[in-house]
Every structure is written in structure tokens, then in C-alpha cells.
Automatic annotation (TrEMBL):
HAMAP family: Fe_traffic_YggX. It comes from Aliidiomarina soli. Gene3D superfamilies: Fe(II) trafficking protein YggX. InterPro entries: Fe_traffick_prot_YggX, Fe_traffick_prot_YggX_sf. This is Probable Fe(2+)-trafficking protein. One of its GO terms (cellular component) is cytosol. Coiled coil: none annotated.
Length: 91
């Protein structure tokens, strides 16, 4: 059985995550208010950020930076700007 949540990122009902993907209070908030679709969009952006900024995930500052960007992306509607990335043109 699938869970449905009102996704704060998509601003509509959508399939919820199967389990809490991130630890702590923020992880609980994501589980309750973010859809699988929105989480996948964040994971794509996160990968781009890690690669572009050459983040070392063993570094606490890098993890804190990603956490802040994740919260802004998922809950505040802030798009992540990737230096040097130009999105493909839609036809």
C-alpha cells in the first residue's frame, strides 16, 4: 500500500516516501511532507552540487551546507544554482 502525502515541494498530493530517508527532526519533516518525486528531484540536485563544488561528504561543513540547501529546496521553493550548469533547452 502506498502512502500519500501533501508534498510541500510539489504543492499537491503525491506518493510519499517508504521510510525516513534522512535522520533527525528534518528527516521526520521530509518523511511527512515530501513526496518520492520531490525527493528524487533533490537527489539529482544534490549530486550536481556535490560534483560541482567538489564536496567531501566526510566534512561536517559540507554536510551542513547540503542540509541547508536541501531544506531550502524542498520546503522554501528555492532552486539550487549550479555554477557553470546550463539546463538543456526545452523544445
Amino acid at each position: 500500500m502506498t502512502r500519500t502525502v501533501f508534498c510541500q515541494y510539489l504543492q499537491r498530493d503525491a506518493e510519499g516516501l517508504d521510510f525516513q530517508m534522512y535522520p533527525g527532526e528534518l528527516g521526520q519533516r521530509i518523511y511527512q511532507h515530501i513526496s518520492k518525486e520531490a525527493w528524487a528531484a533533490w537527489q539529482h540536485k544534490q549530486t550536481m552540487l556535490i560534483n560541482e563544488k567538489r564536496l567531501n561528504m566526510m566534512d561536517a561543513d559540507a554536510r551542513a551546507y547540503l542540509s541547508k540547501e536541501m531544506e531550502a529546496f524542498l520546503f522554501e521553493g528555492k532552486d539550487i544554482e549550479i555554477d557553470g550548469y546550463t539546463p538543456p533547452e526545452t523544445k
